[in-house]
Amino acid sequence: MASSELIEALQALAHERRIDEFYLIERLEQSLAKSYERILDMDYDHSARVIIDRNTGKIYVYELVPKGEPDEEGNYHEFDEIDRTPDDVSRIAAQNAKGVINAIVREAGRQTIYEEFSQRVGDLVTGTVLQGTPEFTIIKIRDGVEAELPHYDQKRSPNERNERPAGERYRHNQRLKTLIIEVRNPNSDDPKVRGEQARPAIVVSRTHPDLIRRLFEIEVPEIYDGMVEIKSIAREPGARSKIAVSSREANLDPVGACVGPKGSRVRMVVEELRNERVDVIQWDENPAIYVKNALSPAKVTRVDIDEESHYATVIVPDDQLSLAIGKEGQNARLAARLTGWHIDIKSASFAGEASLVADALLDEEAETEDTEGGLCEYVTEDGIRCRNHARPGSHFCGVHADTDEEELLERLKRFAAEAEAAKAAELEDDEDDDFEEGEAEEVQEAAEEESEERDDAEEAEGESEEDNAGGETEADDDDDDDDDSDDED
After folding, report:
1. SS3 154
2. 20 to 30 Å CA-CA from 358: which of 51, 66, 193, 292?
3. pTM of this prediction?
């Protein structure tokens, strides 16, 4: 190959791959210098220097012979250049150029991609599926730029990623929206991943929580303009997600803005996520209200907050317990991730027996030789016991390891006294009710007896009046008979 033809080929290749022409020639010079050090059998302290004329393409080879004394580290700074250009330098260059240029083009392309996309980590990109393998899917972002969507089996490759939601499968030329999560630096000293040179430098994800954030920014103008803010996101890719939103405008409903007219906005996000369920809730500064909203659609009766241990005890109606927990604990798990609180959900009937915990704890022995496998004995000010397991050799879990046992004992005694007082008051109320019921019965019986006596008296009086009326009638009849007899005479 003639020297001018080599330059023309390098220029065409640089233009096609969008690589700096001078950078490509410099890398070729460095590679050829190492090759000529072996070909010319130079001494260990000698090195080669190769210069390619940018205009004519002619190649010059020089041997660098050190002169003077080395420094403290044994390095020379001055050299004599001896021309060692062989007659068949172009042929040797052509033989080595193919592999060298391929490597240079590949590395230069990766460096160009890194410089362009390293500032776009966290951005949403749209691409088409080019190729799928059992380990990853290649997505074309644009001409000459490809990205990798890894979905390795975590059991077989624990050091690799799985950024594909469960159940998703991709077709050739299918369009996908993905999130850039990493751009590999070709000059980094970090350990290389398996097959990195043959894999794209850009790594994208379909499972990252920020994917939902970017999708809502596209569909909801209020989020893009900053009037509505996404405070937190909890996601189980492919199944369900929860997002907490708040409004910076007093008269703007953030949940309604995200849902859209007849659910049109959130529906677009759900379709892009392959029918993954998305719950939009109202964020609140009050942790009790925030936790209550996070557990929707379940209805919550009460939320007790423990600031010290960062626990939230939620009381729900008995018929809402399974809905609050969710399938395999999904709803409670997502609510805990969303709010950052440890959530303990109890039914109303179970919470009503909380006062009995103090009695049960006081009946237990104060000291035990082996507490491994037992529950933590800490009880909050509201009388709710910690559900964590105690640490070995301790009565408390790691969260409540510094609990003052004397203070806790006094608290339990107070709970027991309050429970006894409540029971006594309840018994007294029952006795009062019984007494009042007895008095009412006696009064009612007396009234009934008086009423019966009054009725008897009225009956007797009525009978006497009837007797009197009968006597008068008989007397009148006798008088009439006498008159009739007189008339006959």
Report:
1. coil
2. 292
3. 0.60
